[in-house]
Design brief:
The protein has 320 residues and is α/β, with parallel strands linked by helices. It has twelve helices and eleven strands. The strands form three sheets. Strands 3-2-1-4-5-6-10 form a seven-stranded parallel β-sheet, sandwiched between helices. Strand 4, helix 3 and strand 5 form a beta-alpha-beta unit. It is globular, with a radius of gyration of 19 Å. It starts with a strand and ends with a helix.
């Protein structure tokens, strides 16, 4: 049994912490607000952008997993101090730094995305993501830390609610047999990374020194369009057929006046207006993890959302 520190407790942080705890490891989770302890998981409230406090929390850890991220509209100001604190904690403690990344840093590319592509994004969020890895990689190459970045496409699966394009805005209408609205072209092929596979990749690469010093793409099922994903979920939920329509650009612009998230998504809108396909063959040529079969993804996702709906309904009834 070893000690691991997980920063952030959103969908990816929670899945990673629970996977580690299930493997028998000692797990500490850092968030701003903290949470009650869970079996095998200690929760600690602190600001992870404070390098001294984060270093103290990471003492003795085999690995530090960063699964935290500021709100999109605050990336430019809040990511740099958080990234610096993570690197400082890794250097002071000797823990392997495992960064959960995404695909923003590549920018628009007219081919499947592979890890050897340059981080050539010109938008502010893409530049921030590229800078985070550049900082960690430089420290790794100079021998000051051991670091790896694990990049995923849009999250999909149990536990993915806010921020997932196939999440709260899409799955509940599917379960109710209603029309679904999606961003961009509903027929453009798109890579959707299954959340449990994200956690499994983070843990696998943290413990294998062959992975350190570079970025890897999480094994992901073959790209499917939003329409195909909706059809698969609807078939599992037995609510087919479901109509799928594209959210009108004018509506998105109007909504962006009131929603910081939608306003910030304009920078990466290209990911949904044309094919956006991630290639994880490099990972699969070296390591053991493979993408969960998509039928299993659909089954687990529908079950999770149905259970969540039942729990929310039961809670509401208790308050009546």
């Amino acid at each position: 049994m070893t000690f691991h520190l997980v920063v952030g407790y959103g969908p990816a942080g929670a899945a990673t912490a629970r996977l580690l705890a299930g493997q028998g490891h000692e797990v500490r989770v850092v968030t701003r607000s903290g949470r009650p302890a869970e079996p095998g998981i200690e929760h600690l409230a602190l600001d992870a952008a404070n390098p001294e406090r984060l270093t103290e929390a990471a003492r003795g850890a085999a690995a530090v997993y960063n699964c935290a991220a500021p709100p999109l509209h605050r990336w430019a100001t809040e990511w740099p101090p958080l990234a610096s604190a993570l690197c400082a904690a890794a250097e002071a403690t000797g823990a392997v730094l495992v960064l959960l990344g995404n695909l923003y840093g590549y920018g628009p590319v007219d081919r499947p995305l592979t890890e050897d592509l340059p981080l050539a994004a010109t938008g502010p969020k893409g530049r921030v993501r590229a800078a985070i890895w550049d900082q960690a990689r430089t420290l790794h190459e100079t021998g000051r830390i051991r670091a790896v970045e694990v990049r995923a496409s849009d999250f999909f699966g149990p536990g993915v609610t806010d921020g997932g394009h196939l999440a709260a805005r899409v799955v509940p209408p599917i379960l109710a047999g209603k029309t679904v609205s999606v961003l961009g072209d509903p027929d453009a092929p798109h890579s959707w990374t299954y959340l449990p596979d994200v956690a499994a990749a983070l843990v696998e690469l943290a413990g294998d020194e062959r992975a350190w010093g570079r970025a890897w793409h999480v094994p992901t099922a073959p790209a499917r369009s939003a329409r195909e994903m909706v059809a698969g979920l609807a078939a599992e939920a037995k609510t087919t057929p479901i109509a799928v329509r594209q959210l009108p650009p004018a509506m998105l612009r109007l909504a962006g006046l009131f929603s910081p998230l939608l306003r910030e998504l304009r920078e990466v809108r290209y990911q949904f207006d044309r094919p956006f396909v991630m290639d994880a063959s490099a990972y699969e040529s070296v390591f053991a993890l493979r993408a969960t079969p998509v039928e299993e993804q659909f089954r687990a996702t529908v079950e999770w959302w149905r259970d969540r709906s039942q729990r929310l309904t039961a809670t509401a009834l208790k308050k009546v």
